[in-house]
Amino acid sequence: MEKGFIRGIIFVLFEILIVTLIVGLNFFPTPAALASGIIDRYSSYYLSQNDQEPKDGAIKVTFFGTTMLLFDDGETRLMLDGYITRPSLISRRIRDISTDPALVDAALARAQVDKVDALFVAHSHFDHALDIAYIAQKTGAHLYGSESTLNIGRGGDLPEEQMTLYEPGSPVPIGKFTVTVLPSKHSPPVRGVNDNLGMVIDHPLRQPADFFDYVEGGSFDFLIQHGDHAIFVKPAANYIEGALDQVRADVLFLATGTLGNQDAAFREAFYEQTVAKVQPTLVIPVHWDNFNKPLSDSLTALTPWDLKISFDFLIPRLMADQIRFGIMQGFQSILLFDNEKNSS
């Protein structure tokens, strides 16, 4: 029997049971709200699509779901994470997973991405790193990451000269961008799902592989500077106290997944150690979508109650601090710093 089959069936049945109970208890006003995606309740915060080419210091940002982002200044392209294949919950529980080249090719073509200069990876879980080796091969991107991330690259036959191990705190110039990788902390673990925090991938990881083989390998944040502007990306909803005391950015891409599952004290501390420290003018949530479903321009929440609690906490806090909140959908592009505006 294929590795993980019995374990996978048990997890799937348990998760189906939980969802069924929630709907049956009428946790939300109607089951239809759960099915259609609670994200639509926040449509007034959707940012506008902007297809203009970046110039004169503007940066085009394209969102591919989870924490996968493309930053383009018209000369240089930086990518954060690589997760387009998005295997379903059932499929990854009962069989090993691997990149689907056709899906990745189609997504990159839709976004008109044929070349990427650098690819940075937040951590080595499959929902951040499954497709990084293939994307680096296809686009020529130089892969930056932890030892675990580089072992994913090695498993995909990337040459050593196309990979660089992180040196946290050391600025990396790439074109007119400067990227500083900072140590971070993964969101609190969920037993049986991502309770491998601190574990490392210590050998080349070849596909197909059990999704449990994609252990965390350390988590990281990213300060992306470009001219007089800065963007900060926080790919996991957790914090290290005081780590961002000296970090400032105009725009903050902030992971919200699992934030609603934490208690009020955690959410308050998270805000104080991220948003309040970085002092952005615009916050864009990431890692809120259901990464068990295919990438599309109509992403839905991974867990609706988590999204509702986290967004309902963040929005009034941000408004009180006079910080804008803007949501991006899959494949959407916005233009930052265009004529000194922070959105499209």
Could you characterize what this model shows?
This protein is α/β, with parallel strands linked by helices. It has one domain: Metallo-beta-lactamase, Chain A (4-Layer Sandwich), CATH 3.60.15. The protein has helices spanning 5-24, 31-36, 89-94, 101-110, 126-129, 132-139, 147-155, 264-273, 275-278, 304-320, and strands at residues 59-63, 69-72, 77-80, 118-120, 142-145, 163-165, 172-174, 177-183, 220-226, 229-234, 251-255, 282-286, 324-325, 333-336. The strands form two sheets. The protein has a seven-stranded mixed sheet with strand order 6-5-4-3-2-1-14, with helices on one face. A seven-stranded mixed sheet has the order 7-8-9-10-11-12-13, covered by helices on one side. A hairpin with a 4-residue loop joins β2 (69-72) and β3. α6 crosses α7. The longest helix has 20 residues, at 5-24. The protein is globular. Mean pLDDT is 91; it is low at 18-33.
Along the chain, the helix and strand elements come as: HHEEEHHEHHEHEEEEEEHHEHEE
Number of domains: 1
CATH superfamily: Ribonuclease Z/Hydroxyacylglutathione hydrolase-like
* Share of residues in strands: 15-25%
- Please identify the structural class as seen in this structure: alpha/beta
Largest sheet: 7 strands, mixed
Sequence of strands across the biggest β-sheet: 6-5-4-3-2-1-14
Rg result: 19 Å
CATH architecture: 4-Layer Sandwich
Q: How many β-strand runs?
A: 14
The CATH topology name reads Metallo-beta-lactamase, Chain A
Percent range of helical residues: 25-40%
Low-confidence parts, pLDDT < 50 over ≥5 residues? 18-33
Apparent shape: globular
Distance between the termini: 52 Å
- Number of H/I helices: 10
